[in-house]
Design a protein that fits this description.
CATH topology of the largest domain: 60s Ribosomal Protein L30, Chain: A
Number of strands: 10
Radius of gyration: 18 Å
Number of domains: 2
Strand content: 25-35%
Distance between the termini: 22 Å
Structural class: alpha+beta
Number of helices: 8
Oligomer: single chain
């Protein structure tokens, strides 16, 4: 309730164009889990029209560097990205029928790449709509496992058995058949808490699993109520 009233602590000027974009960038940073060498930000046309003035460029770059939306270093994120050797660009793209503040991030290094799409829906809130061109629905309110696995009988049971053995409680689960021809699925599991690292490693070791990514809870900093309501 308090968050809905007073909002998060952010580096301005906009909760939608700055805070939300930084959170989408942080989601990418968390899932990619590695050094980014090149990244392209595809911005929906309404967002692209004002992204520099609203600081969306700094917010997105700050997010993929792991900076929170309350971190003053976001103001220097362009310089930080350049010093880190990250090659970046911003491109206008029409996302017909999607939220005006939608961005698709395509980042890579010599070992791997990742495509993530998200929308900043106001007040610092976001929705991750796509991962690797597959529809998902993640808000960052919970930590999540994104698992690419064989689409065969027993695959999901094996994954869930390991989570159960570690007393990991599941909040939401969705299974997407991403490649029916090659029998590949993407399993997105939101959790109540981050699992122990050995649980994630056990899932990675399953013969039915190709890849495991972990998205941390995108927690926000709230205003200090003792200051906010001080006389």
């Amino acid at each position: 309730m308090l968050y809905d009233v007073v909002g998060p602590v952010i580096v301005g000027p906009s909760s939608s164009h700055t805070a939300g974009m930084a959170k989408i960038g942080r989601a990418f940073y968390s899932i990619f889990n590695g050094e980014i060498e090149k990244v392209i930000f595809y911005l929906n046309e309404p967002l692209y029209s004002s992204f520099k003035g609203h600081g969306s460029d700094r917010a997105l770059l700050g997010g993929i560097l792991g900076l929170k939306e309350s971190d003053e270093m976001i103001k220097k994120s362009i310089e930080l990205a350049i010093n880190s050797g990250i090659e970046y660009s911003f491109i206008s793209k029409s996302f017909f029928g999607k939220h005006p503040n939608t961005v698709r991030i395509h980042g890579e290094n010599k070992y791997k790449s990742l495509i993530l799409e998200g929308s900043s829906i106001g007040g610092g809130a976001i929705i991750i709509n796509e991962i690797e061109n597959q529809n998902v629905n993640l808000t960052g309110a919970y930590p999540a496992l994104i698992i690419k696995n064989k689409d065969v009988p027993g695959a999901l049971v094996s994954i869930l058995s390991i989570l159960r053995s570690g007393n990991v409680n599941i909040s939401n689960l969705s299974l997407i058949r991403s490649d029916k021809i090659n029998k590949i699925a993407i399993c997105v599991i939101e959790l109540d808490a981050k699992p122990l690292s050995n649980i994630i490693e056990k899932i990675k070791d399953l013969t039915v699993v190709f890849e495991v990514s972990f998205m941390k809870e995108l927690e926000v900093d709230l205003w200090d109520s003792t200051t906010l309501f001080a006389k």
